[in-house]
Specification:
The structure holds two protein chains of two kinds. In chain A, about 40% of the residues lie in helices and about 30% in strands. Chain A contains four helices and five strands; from the N terminus they run βαααββαββ. In chain A, helix 1 crosses helix 3. The longest helix of chain A is centred in the middle third of the chain and has 22 residues. In chain A, about 35% of the residues are buried. Chain B is built from three helices and no strands. Classes of the chains: A alpha+beta, B mainly alpha. Chains A and B meet through strand 1 and helix 1 of A and helix 2 of B.
Chain lengths: ~140, ~100
């Protein structure tokens, strides 16, 4: 066996998270726009379909992406960025991209993580996201 | 205040144990609290106590135990004296 190589030394970080779609649906029904505005950008809310279940699927996957991005950013205790500092934006050709602002952008800059990628999925009541970032020039701001 | 905190936890935290049985300093994340559930707990606490959590308190640590939630609410003026009774409690949220 060769010498072990740490993730950071390879310049790559990966984060993953899962969220219950029905919990998001219940939160939207209970707290409405106050819940949505706390967590999601205008663009994310505009992109989400109006039908409650479809909207919850879209928002749940995006919340998972934000949490996965936080795992990549590794904030200090109490220093997590705001959820709206991480935005999932759908590319016209179908795939999704990550945009960072504010505290999330600062942490990414400090870590030298300039190239980001995200993948979302749903199955039944579960929405999941994987976020990966590698060192390089910043290409994640709006 | 504790009774209302535990009522909110029982309605929104989706813990693996009864909220009334959780120790004051027990880590709520170790008994099932998720990041998403902590958001709904925070919003329900705002409704129950008539307060608004500032960005500075919107972090994992604030909602990690009953004692930390109590401390955060105290920081927002809850429990500071007469007239602090909630009165704005909205009961259980729609699940």
């Amino acid at each position: 066996m060769g010498a072990a190589m740490g993730i950071d030394s390879a310049g790559v970080r990966v984060g993953i998270d899962v969220v219950s779609v029905s919990e998001v649906e219940a939160a939207v029904a209970r707290f409405g726009p106050r819940y949505e505005r706390l967590l999601f950008t205008d663009g994310e809310r505009d992109d989400a379909p109006p039908a409650p279940r479809s909207r919850a699927e879209s928002l749940a996957a995006r919340f998972a992406a934000k949490e996965a991005a936080f795992k990549v950013l590794r904030p200090a205790p109490g220093g997590a960025p705001r959820w709206r500092d991480v935005e999932v934006r759908r590319h016209p050709q179908g795939w999704c991209e990550i945009l960072l602002r504010g505290g999330a952008a600062s942490l990414a800059r400090q870590a030298g993580l300039g190239r980001w990628s995200v993948s979302l999925t749903h199955h039944g009541d579960v929405a999941a996201a994987v976020v990966a970032a590698v060192e390089g020039p910043a290409a994640w701001t709006s | 205040m504790d009774e209302l905190i535990r009522s909110v936890l029982g309605d929104h935290a989706r813990l693996h144990v009864e909220a009334t049985a959780v120790g004051d300093d027990q880590d709520l994340y170790s008994v099932g609290l998720t990041s998403h559930a902590s958001v709904t707990v925070m919003l329900a606490l705002e409704d129950a106590f008539g307060v608004e959590f500032p960005d500075s308190l919107l972090n994992r640590q604030t909602f990690s135990s009953v004692s930390r939630i109590r401390a955060a609410l105290a920081e927002l003026g809850v429990g500071a004296g007469p007239g602090d009774s909630p009165g704005l409690a909205t009961g259980s949220g729609g699940r």
